[in-house]
């Protein structure tokens, strides 16, 4: 398992950056100098321009590849390969040193190219077959180069010197044309063997790669095969198309360009992929945790990708369906990347190992996943807290309603019954024959007071919680409420019973609205409509009063809004001066 | 206030009554009021179950029956206890309006309106 979340860093030493920056002018100067050799030796201007254009383009693309991932060996290898091909005309200099250097470099660049292709995209050759092939390529190139320097005839060693006088003697030894011919034959056999092995390795990689890796590498691998074929052509028909502008030359230039473009395509794809991760982050903003996995899978084009969410209580990573997520560790194509936040583990990504081949992509993915998971976690926390607050408010309102009902029952069963009993006792006392007139008058007065006290107590109990609401529901309670109002109130309400919280809230909302219509709006008529629709109770209280009420002012309205919202309802007030007031309330009723 | 004919309890025989109410103080005073109004109180009950038993045992001419009882509704019990020659007088501290349409045409008086005169009138009608 790679813990990239905690330790993803770009290995970009200062020297590498300096080298890449210095490479631009150096390559420019060296390229122009090299092409001037061709120019001076009588090569046509068009060929020189063509060679320069292809050479500079390839070097330019290789520097982009190098700069995209400075710590990866592929970039420098590609740079060396393309740069050598640009400056290779130095081999035509009639100078022993440059001839020797270019002879060796020309041989070794085959190994450089093979290493660049086989090490793509990680910079590591991967298996022992690839390592052996590259080592053999370098080794045989070095051996044949030294032998060539020792025995090659001058005109063959120097490529004919493009018509210029060749140095009189080879650099290290005397010419041995017969032996050199045999050596060249042997080298051709070795070259064919090398190209076949190289092609076999690439075909094997194409056949066994995961879909993601194949997509990532196919351009470079195919370019490698093409270059191998071109190399074979050059080896088997070395002199068949000799001279400037021959077919071999055109093909080798084309292949060089294709190889550089193939490596560049990889850079482009990686950048597009990183950009898609950024797009995914925007897309995921505000979404919930379960949508992260499909988004990552889509962006990385890895259908096998799984995301586990850290469960601190169980110390495991679980997916959206509650299954444990862990890598199989069967040494196959899977890898796992840990995503951690400030507060510890957040998630575990199990994905195609090929994703790891682009550390910056992994870095982007981990960062995006971390943000998305943190966001989802914070959203979940916020939702939980909001739910908690809403539940708490609903509990407070329910407790208040229950306290009101209890108080109303206590008044009804306690004080009211005792007062009524006293009333009966007063009647009995008055009925006693021994009671004189003055006492009877006193008893009459006491009875009248008692009656008033009972009436006041009844009104008080009714205001606290109307018993009729409990017994007969909203329609019955509203009917009584309307008859007690000082103005005409038209009520339209279904007789069906509703949940207790809905009935109580609806009753107090309408009661408050009617009180306001009387006290503040100076209304002469109020209509109240209650209807059940779309799993909700809809209340509409409309008066013909003065209007102009401010819904944000007045503790009564605020209290009503709190009460309505405590059961997830909503309330709106329209009150235009001179055009009455309209209160609309929706109370969800599942 | 609704009033019924009391022809069945007119005569020399003292009419019997049962008081059904869950408040002991009110029950006690109602008993005394009924006696003062010329009834013989033959039983008291504080809930539906007791009331049913008392009425079956005593076969009273009048049942003073509270509407809101701890184990049920007096209005429903009134239908059950209705018998020829028996008056079921429903009473409550709530008004007929508050009790709603279930009350129908049953004889009903609020507790605050329950008086010696009313009971005597009921007996003498």
List keywords for this structure.
heterodimer; A: 590 residues; alpha+beta; Rhopdopsin 7-helix transmembrane proteins; Beta-Lactamase; Heat Shock Protein 90; 3 domains; five-stranded mixed β-sheet; four-stranded antiparallel β-sheet; 9 strands; 64% helix; rod-shaped; disordered N terminus; B: 125 residues; alpha/beta; Rossmann fold; five-stranded parallel β-sheet; two-stranded antiparallel sheet; 5 helices; 7 strands; 36% helix; 23% strand; globular
Structure description:
The complex is a heterodimer of chains A (590) and B (125). Chain A has 16 helices and nine strands. Chain A is of the alpha+beta class. Chain A folds into three domains: 13-272, Rhopdopsin 7-helix transmembrane proteins, CATH 1.20.1070; 273-394, 2-Layer Sandwich (Beta-Lactamase); 468-588, 2-Layer Sandwich (Heat Shock Protein 90). In chain A, the strands form two sheets. A five-stranded mixed sheet of chain A has the order 5-6-7-9-8, covered by helices on one side. Chain B is of the alpha/beta class and 125 residues long. Helices cover 36% and strands 23% of the residues of chain B. Chain B is built from five helices and seven strands, in the order E-H-E-H-E-E-E-H-E-H-E-H. Chain B has helices at 24-36, 48-58, 74-81, 96-99, 116-124; strands spanning 16-20, 40-45, 62-66, 68-69, 72-73, 87-92, 108-110. In chain B, helix 1 (24-36) links the parallel strand 1 and strand 2. The radius of gyration of chain B is 13 Å and the shape is globular. The two termini of chain B are 15 Å apart. The model of chain B is unreliable at 1-11 (pLDDT under 50). The A-B interface holds A 412-413, 416-418, 420-421, 423-425, 427-428, 431, 451, 454-455, 458, 467-468, 471-472, 476, 480, 483 and B 22-23, 25-26, 28-30, 32-33, 36, 93-94, 97-100, 111-112, 114-116.
């Amino acid at each position: 398992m790679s813990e990239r979340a905690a330790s993803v860093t770009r290995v970009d030493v200062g020297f590498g950056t300096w080298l890449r920056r210095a490479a631009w002018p150096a390559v420019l100067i060296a390229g122009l100098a090299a092409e001037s050799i061709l120019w001076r030796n009588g090569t046509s201007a068009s060929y020189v321009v063509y060679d320069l254009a292809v050479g500079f383009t390839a070097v330019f693309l290789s520097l982009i590849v190098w700069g995209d991932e400075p710590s990866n060996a592929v970039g420098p290898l590609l740079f060396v390969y393309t740069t050598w091909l640009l400056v290779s005309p130095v081999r035509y200099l009639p100078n022993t040193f440059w001839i020797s250097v270019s002879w060796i470099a020309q041989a070794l660049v085959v190994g450089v190219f093979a290493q660049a292709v086989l090490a793509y995209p990680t910079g590591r050759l991967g298996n022992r077959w690839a390592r052996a092939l590259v080592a053999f390529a370098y080794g045989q190139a070095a051996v044949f180069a030294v032998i060539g320097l020792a025995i090659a005839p001058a005109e063959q060693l120097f490529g004919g010197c493009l018509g210029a006088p060749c140095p009189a003697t080879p650099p290290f030894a005397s010419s041995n044309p017969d032996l050199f011919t045999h050596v060249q034959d042997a080298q051709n056999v070795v070259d064919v063997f090398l190209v076949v092995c190289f092609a076999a390795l690439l075909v094997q990689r194409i056949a066994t790669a995961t879909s993601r890796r194949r997509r990532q590498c196919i351009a470079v691998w195919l370019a490698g095969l093409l270059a191998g074929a071109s190399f074979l052509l050059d080896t088997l028909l070395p002199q068949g198309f000799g001279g400037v502008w021959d077919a071999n030359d055109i093909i080798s230039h084309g292949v060089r360009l294709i190889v550089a473009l193939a490596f560049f395509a990889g850079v482009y794809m990686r950048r597009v992929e990183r950009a898609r991760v950024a797009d995914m982050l925007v897309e995921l903003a505000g979404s919930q945790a379960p949508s992260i996995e499909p988004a990552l899978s889509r962006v990385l084009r890895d259908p096998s990708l799984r995301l586990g969410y850290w469960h601190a209580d169980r110390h495991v990573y679980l997916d959206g369906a509650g299954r444990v997520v862990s890598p199989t560790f069967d040494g196959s194509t899977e890898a796992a990347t840990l995503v951690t936040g400030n507060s510890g583990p957040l998630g575990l990504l199990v994905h195609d190992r090929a994703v790891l081949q682009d550390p910056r992509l992994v870095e982007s993915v981990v960062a995006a996943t971390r943000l998305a998971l943190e966001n989802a976690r914070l959203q979940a926390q916020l939702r939980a807290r909001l739910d908690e607050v809403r539940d708490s408010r609903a509990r407070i309102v329910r407790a208040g309603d229950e306290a009101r009902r209890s108080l109303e029952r206590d008044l009804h069963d306690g004080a009211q019954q005792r007062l009524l009993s006293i009333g009966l006792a007063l009647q009995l006392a008055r009925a006693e024959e021994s009671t004189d007139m003055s006492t009877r008058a006193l008893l009459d007065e006491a009875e009248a007071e008692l009656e008033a006290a009972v009436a006041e107590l009844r009104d008080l109990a009714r205001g606290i919680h109307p018993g009729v609401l409990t017994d007969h529901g909203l329609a019955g309670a509203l009917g009584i409420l309307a008859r007690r109002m000082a103005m005409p109130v038209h009520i339209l309400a279904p007789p069906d019973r509703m949940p207790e919280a809905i009935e109580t809230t609806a009753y107090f909302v309408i009661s408050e609205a009617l009180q306001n219509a009387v006290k503040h709006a100076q209304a002469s008529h109020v209509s109240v409509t209650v209807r059940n629709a779309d799993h909700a109770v809809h209340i509409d209280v409309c008066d013909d009063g003065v209007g102009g009420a401010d819904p944000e002012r007045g503790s009564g309205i605020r209290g009503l809004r709190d009460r309505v919202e405590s059961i997830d309802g909503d309330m709106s007030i329209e009150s235009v001066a001179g055009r009455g007031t309209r209160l609309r309330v929706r109370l969800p009723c599942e | 206030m609704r009033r019924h004919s009391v022809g069945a309890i007119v005569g020399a025989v003292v009419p019997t009554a049962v008081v059904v109410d869950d408040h002991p103080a009110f029950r006690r005073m109602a008993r005394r009021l009924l006696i003062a109004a010329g009834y013989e109180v033959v039983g008291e009950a504080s809930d539906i179950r007791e009331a049913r038993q008392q009425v079956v045992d005593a076969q009273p001419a009048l049942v003073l029956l509270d509407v809101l009882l701890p184990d049920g509704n007096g209005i429903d019990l009134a239908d059950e206890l209705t018998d020829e020659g028996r008056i079921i007088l429903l009473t409550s501290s709530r008004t007929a309006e508050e009790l709603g349409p279930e009350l129908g045409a049953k004889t009903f008086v609020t507790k605050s309106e329950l008086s010696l005169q009313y009971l005597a009138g009921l007996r003498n009608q």
